[in-house]
Amino acid sequence: xxxxxxxxxxxxxxxxxxxxxxxxxxxxQVQERLTTQIVEALVTYLKPRGAMVxxxxxxxxxxxxxxxxxxxxxxxxxxxxQLHDPATRAEAMSLILGR
Length: 99
Description:
Layout: E1 2-6, H1 14-25, H2 31-46, E2 50-58, H3 60-63, E3 73-81, H4 86-97
Antiparallel strand pairs: 1-2, 2-3
């Protein structure tokens, strides 16, 4: 999971971000909703100029039952604010993907 935000005046420690993810991820959840809930919480509480959350998950239903395709991953993203700008979003994604 990658979290990115353009802070205004509020900043937070890394442990708070991990706790935020845990709050939403510990309940039964679909990945798309999880991604959206995390980015909305970042925007609500930190009020950044922009925020992006990218979640990459391996779904156990794909790995352990049914189709049995271990390693199959799904990536979802949610973007708010200035990260809607294509150039800014591309730069953030290149940092995330290491390209």
